[in-house]
Specification:
The structure holds two protein chains of two kinds. Helices cover 50% and strands 16% of the residues of chain A. Chain A is α+β, with helices and mostly antiparallel strands. In chain B, the strands form three sheets. A four-stranded mixed beta sheet of chain B has the order 1-4-5-8. The chains are: A alpha+beta, B alpha+beta.
């Protein structure tokens, strides 16, 4: 057994941590949160230059990483600093799907994306799909050389900044069927696309996307007609590794801030960390942190494994991170007292990142049920 | 032992319900249901409606113009009000300051301030907490020094977490008037006009984007000596008296019941695996669990309430209610955000501030996550839950703990 990072990943972690420590302090982030775009172009380009996006793709795809551990290393650091820039949506989901399914022409977008010039968004979830990936009701109808898309996509993160949307739509079957779902690469300015954008509680922006007779050439299809489901599932698995690692990084920041606070803040004449009730809770947080780290390592290590092993570990990690994350976020706020409730204090943002991660790609309950179903299968 | 309400109590409930049906404006209850802020005007409007009915000050004796309801009646009213999505009356003046004035204030103070309270002429806020004091309230540092003529105090210092201080024209404060004695013995209770030169209110924006609390700064603020309540250096006694009043309604049974209704409403509409989420056994079990806790807690609350109605002062039970009540409310907030799924993610402050941006989902579930974050405060303010547990331990096991 060896739990150490490879030298390359260690270097990536060090340079990314240094960059974010220097460039991404609380004041900077709070300005980004309030901006109209919800992200910083400078930070995006700086991180792209540093190779952060490239680390999320394999060599075949034009990157230099792409494995579960590469994703975990990058996202743990992004989480530690509370970064709101849409790496998950552009690289792991959107970019990943183009890289996995795209033909030669479509692959060209991956290179652009790794360089930081292209942003994409994955328009998949719908108002009634909740976390089920197969509940697609948007339709794709072939019309000669074209395909016509109709439907509504819910809470599409980064839709407004995206140059292209990766849209899922059904070519056959019914909501709930895995067969019949296709993906299309749609330029964001295509006629018939309407966005209703809004800010997200944990930073960044999303939009409701309405598709009204959106007509694209059949060549916009990614991969085979009606066969996109397995690729979507695999990319969401990668996204769950990313978001679990990100949450782990955020949890580390939350526990660090809390530990420091308990040691310096005095009440009744002594540091509050000397009160047993708080000291024991802090100990529990540290125990859960180790559990969370283990879950992330196992999930990342199984991302390239066969289906059942992969999905079991992904669901286990997402469930555990949801539970441990809630404990860490809530107890960190509680032990800080009122100060943690204020927007300008770092923990407020970090706690929101941790909790709201539960609302992407399935919460603790969703993954508990999935874990049970996979074990029974 | 009789577990049902008496005929009088049932009649009272019917009367309250009829009043709410008739007098609670629909646009007001809609706002509350959606988790939007009522604003100052809305608060004042509801205040006036209740005052016209004679129900604005349920806990005051009749001789001061109150309804003089007993604890069971107050409980019934709160339950019905929460179920009808009526606004919560801002408690600082009516239910916190007023009992102190009535018990410890001078005749002149009562004659002047109480009618103004009922008429809505003053908006009071509370100046207890200070940065660095928190739950260790007695370590407060804001200082009041009597001038040589003995006509005014000069106040310097800073208060924090002043709820709705941005609307207030008056603040009641704990101030230090003697630094040479034991912490608790040098504190006085002062009423300060916020228009006095030297008073400055600075907003604190909370993590859900709302402006609910403030910092209040005092630099050389002149306060007439008539505004001292009771005796100098005995403010701690009054403060403790006030805190028992603050904690009487903190179980929040009505809010929890309304919250649970909202959770079920969202979970009936939200689909999971092609079926309503409320039919998902796992989610249904979570809801049932908290519902069972709430049923028991509501009875615990009634047991304590009926004891109080019989004249017993609430003691350690109020600490127990605070701990259990806040845990349940926070659990319900958590269920609501979970029920909303991905639609919990939008930042809801635009909607809360009443702009034209309609939240994208048909259920208006948007504000549930913001409420979840905002209500983390429940276990922190009014004496944190850790402090309440310490009080319970101390009371039941003696000094140690």
């Amino acid at each position: 057994m060896n739990f150490d990072l490879t030298e390359e990943r260690q270097m990536l972690q060090d340079s990314l941590r240094r960059f974010l420590r220097d460039k991404y302090d609380t004041a900077t982030r709070n300005k980004i949160l309030e901006s109209d775009t919800g992200f910083s172009g400078d930070i995006w380009n700086g991180l792209a230059e540093l190779g952060v996006i490239g680390a999320l793709f394999t060599e075949d795809q034009g990157g230099f990483g792409g494995a579960g551990f590469d994703i975990a290393v990058v996202f743990e650091e992004l989480g530690r600093a509370g970064v709101v820039e849409p790496f998950l949506d552009t690289a792991i989901l959107g970019g990943g799907l183009i890289a996995d399914l795209g033909n030669e022409d479509q692959q060209a977008h991956v290179e652009e994306l790794i360089g930081g010039a292209l942003q994409v968004a994955f328009a998949h979830g719908e108002p009634t799909s909740r976390y089920d990936l197969n509940q697609v009701t948007s339709t794709a109808k072939v019309d000669g050389d074209n395909v016509v898309l109709n439907g509504r996509k819910a809470v599409v993160v980064n839709a407004e900044n995206a140059d292209m949307l990766i849209v899922s739509a059904r070519e056959s079957g019914e909501a709930g069927d895995e067969n019949g779902i296709s993906l299309f690469l749609v330029p964001a300015d295509t006629k018939g696309i309407t966005l209703q954008g809004y800010a997200l509680l944990a930073g960044g922006r999303a939009a409701e996307v309405t598709l009204d007779d959106v007509t694209v050439p059949a060549s916009a299809r990614l991969g085979e007609a009606g066969k996109a489901f397995k690729a979507i599932e695999a990319r969401v698995a990668a996204a769950n590794v990313a978001i679990c690692a990100e949450t782990l990084g955020a949890m580390e920041t939350a526990t660090r801030l809390t530990r420091e606070y308990l040691m310096t803040r005095k009440q009744f004449g002594k540091p509050i960390g000397t009160f047993q009730a708080l000291a024991h809770r802090m100990s529990d947080l540290l125990i859960e942190m180790e559990q969370a780290r283990s879950a992330v390592i196992v999930a990342a290590g199984n991302l390239e494994a066969e289906y059942k092993a992969r999905e079991t570990h992904i669901s286990a990690a997402k469930n555990l991170l949801g539970r441990a994350g809630r404990l860490v976020a809530e107890d960190s706020i509680q032990m800080h007292g009122g100060i943690a409730m204020t927007q300008e204090y770092e923990l407020a943002h970090i706690a929101k990142r941790i909790i709201m991660a539960d609302h992407r790609f399935g919460d603790t309950d969703h993954h508990l049920e999935r874990f049970i179903a996979l074990a029974a299968a | 032992m009789d577990l049902s309400y008496s005929d009088e109590e049932k009649a009272f409930r019917a009367e309250v319900r009829a009043f709410l049906e008739e007098k609670l404006p629909k646009e007001m209850s809609d706002k509350i249901r959606k988790g939007e802020e009522l604003g100052k005007d809305g608060q004042e409007q509801w205040h006036a409606i209740l005052n016209a009915q004679g129900w604005l000050a349920p806990n005051w004796p009749k001789k001061f113009g109150g309804a003089e309801w007993n604890a069971v009646q107050r409980h019934i009213f709160e339950e019905e009000a929460a179920a009808a999505y009526a606004p919560r009356i801002v408690p600082f003046g009516l239910s916190m300051l007023a009992p102190v004035l009535q018990k410890f204030g001078s005749q002149e103070q009562n004659d002047y301030w109480l009618p103004r309270l009922l008429a809505g002429e003053d908006w009071w806020c509370q100046g207890y907490s200070e940065p660095g004091a928190g739950s260790d309230l007695a370590s407060l540092k804001t200082e009041a020094v009597l001038n040589d003529e003995g006509t005014h105090y000069i106040v310097n210092g800073q208060k924090t977490w002043t709820t709705l201080g941005q609307h207030a024209n008056m603040i009641f404060c704990l101030v230090r008037t003697d630094k040479t004695v034991k912490q608790q013995e040098g504190i006085s209770f002062l009423l300060i006009d916020m228009e006095t030169p030297g008073v400055e209110v600075r907003p604190i924006i909370l993590l859900d984007g709302t402006h609910e609390v403030n910092e209040v700064w005092f630099s050389d603020v002149k306060v007439p000596v008539e505004n001292l309540v009771g005796k100098e250096n005995e403010g701690w006694t009054y403060a403790k008296y006030l805190l028992t009043h603050e904690r009487t309604n903190i179980a929040g049974v009505g809010f929890s019941q309304a919250g649970l209704t909202a959770v079920k409403r969202i979970a009936r509409a939200e689909m999971s695996g092609g079926k309503p989420l409320m039919q998902n056994p796992h989610f249904a079990a979570r809801v049932a669990q908290v519902e069972i806790d709430l049923m028991a807690m509501s009875t615990t609350n009634l047991r304590i309430v009926s004891k109080a109605a019989a004249g017993a002062a609430p003691g350690v039970e109020s600490s127990m209610l605070k701990v259990k009540g806040t845990i349940i409310r926070q659990e319900i907030n958590d269920l609501a955000r979970r029920a909303a799924g991905a639609y919990a993610m939008p930042f809801a402050s635009e909607a809360i501030e009443g702009s034209n941006l309609a939240l994208p989902d048909p259920l208006n579930a948007g504000p549930v996550a913001a409420q979840y974050f905002n209500n983390r405060k429940l276990s922190i303010f009014g004496g944190s839950n850790e402090i309440q547990r310490q009080i319970i331990a101390k009371t039941t096991m003696g000094g140690g703990a």
